Amino acid sequence: MSHPAASSSVPAPVHVPAPVPAPGPDRIAYTAEAHVTGGRDGRAATSDGVLDLRLALPKSLGGSGDGANPEQLLAIGWAACFESVLVMLARKGGLDASGVAIDARVHLVKQDDGGFALAAELDVTLPVLDAGAAAGLVREAHRFCPYSKATRGNVPVLFMANGAAVSAGDV
């Protein structure tokens, strides 16, 4: 007996990578803890009390927009981490990263299935460095930044260095 042809409404198989083993306690350098209630229209607080935020859906998604949202928090965290890594690498390489600034954008992108995905832009200004040195430093920071590692292969990212697009290369 023959099987009917697969319908186009049947989802394609999803590739699930092998799980990465959890690091042992001796490998963990820091753990951030947060408690969230109410999802995107709720409250988020860190266990140490440093952050206690009202969360709100952005106006563009039909919300009030009068609170922080996860995309803003990711943009802040990624940019701060990326800049720290970039400055460390510049020092190690004998480069001057003074005046560095990063404008980060995290996009919530509508998908055909009705869901959303993320995309990002990191626009790095390194006023003391020429275009080639700035681009190389941004590429290197992308290799080492923990946020870049966590999103690599999952989140498309546009990198800019001193106003010019940077190819992430094979990192």
Q: How many β-strand stretches?
A: 7
For the record, what CATH class of the largest domain applies?
Alpha Beta
Report the helical percentage: 25-40%
Structural class: alpha+beta
User: Could you say which overall geometry the principal axes of the C-alpha atoms support?
Assistant: globular
The main sheet orders its strands as 4-5-6-7
- Say which CATH homologous superfamily of the largest domain is assigned: K homology (KH) domain
End-to-end separation in angstroms reads: 49 Å
From the 3D structure, determine the CATH topology of the largest domain: GMP Synthetase, Chain A, domain 3
Beta-strand content: 15-25%
Whole-number count of domains: 2
Average pLDDT level: 90
Tell me the layout of helices and strands.
Elements: E1 34-37, E2 43-46, E3 52-54, H1 70-92, E4 101-110, E5 116-125, H2 131-144, H3 146-151, E6 157-161, E7 164-166
Parallel strand pairs: 5-6
Antiparallel strand pairs: 1-2, 2-3, 4-5, 6-7
